[in-house]
Amino acid sequence: MDFRTSGDDAGKRLDHFIQEHLPEFSRSRLQQWIKAGRVLVDGRAEKAAHALRPDVLVQVAPANPTPLHATPEDLPLEILYEDANVIAVNKPAGMVVHAGAGISSGTLVNALMHRFQALSNIAGELRPGIVHRIDRYTSGVLLVARNDAAHRQLAAQFSSRTVDKVYHAQVQGGIKQETGRITTPISRDPIHRTRMTARLASGRSAVTEYRVLDRFAKFTYVEVKIGTGRTHQIRVHLSSIGHPVAGDKLYGASAREYGRYFLHAHKITFTPPGSESRITVAAPLPPELMQWLVEAGATMEVNRIESN
């Protein structure tokens, strides 16, 4: 693929230039191509920070990513619910759900394959059993399908929005209303490709509802329900009303010492495949988030915080 720079590109970094022209690829992959000499500027390999001049030819020779395979790993795994068709796990913050973007080990899928061996195959070799996902630094309950029939039934429930997902979040600042509903469409940020945004007129529809659980001097503790499952939905929507999730630097919050942000998938209500009765599976707040609440000045007793 060949691109020629213009006057507007003078002084622009090489990696930024090709990111603008190839937004479908991650920045890390493009930088790997630059390091491997697969990106040439007027026939010469340059570094990612190379400042471009006008009217130079930039040539990109894409390389296929190294195939990833989900392999079993003996990793800690907390099971919240289990039957013949579905598993509900309590994913810790920091654990990636499945391999990708340079991560091939230490994932939830690796742990699941070691523990259960056979899972549904509908989502492909890298995502066996995975019906839905939660972000890497979000903790909490996640459903896994043990067979293809169960996967289809669970996917249908997510698609028809009959699965109820409840999150707990602490956000910066004081939310004025006790309850609220955010319906701004969500799309990928055209400049910062690792982010999503609710600032554009276009995007995918998204519905987020919140209810205040407790108030502190600098934070508000909320329950959040989502009617859709867009990428970074809760984080984007809460940031869009001026209250980013505490610790979420990507969306404007101050960093915290816990190495994560305060977002937890607290409860999920669904109909287990093969059953006619809905059930609710809950994941208690992890210790670091409980401590975070205490440090913020929580007025609720610990058992009340967990049961909300």
Number of strands: 15
Fourth-tier CATH superfamily name of the largest domain: Pseudouridine synthase
User: In percent, how helical is the residue content?
Assistant: 10-25%
Largest β sheet strand count, sense and barrel closure: 9 strands, mixed
Rg from C-alpha positions?
22 Å
Overall form: globular
Q: The CATH topology of the largest domain, please?
A: Pseudouridine synthase
Oligomer: single chain
Indicate the structural class.
Answer: alpha+beta
The average pLDDT is 90
- Would you identify the CATH architecture of the largest domain? 2-Layer Sandwich
Order of helices and strands: EHHEEEEEHEHEEEEEEHEEHH
For this structure, what is the CATH class of the largest domain?
Answer: Alpha Beta
Short description:
This protein is of the alpha+beta class. It has seven helices and 15 strands.
Which features does this protein show?
308 residues, alpha+beta, Structural Genomics Hypothetical 15.5 Kd Protein In mrcA-pckA Intergenic Region, Chain A, Pseudouridine synthase, 3 domains, nine-stranded mixed β-sheet, four-stranded antiparallel β-sheet, 15 strands, 24% strand, globular
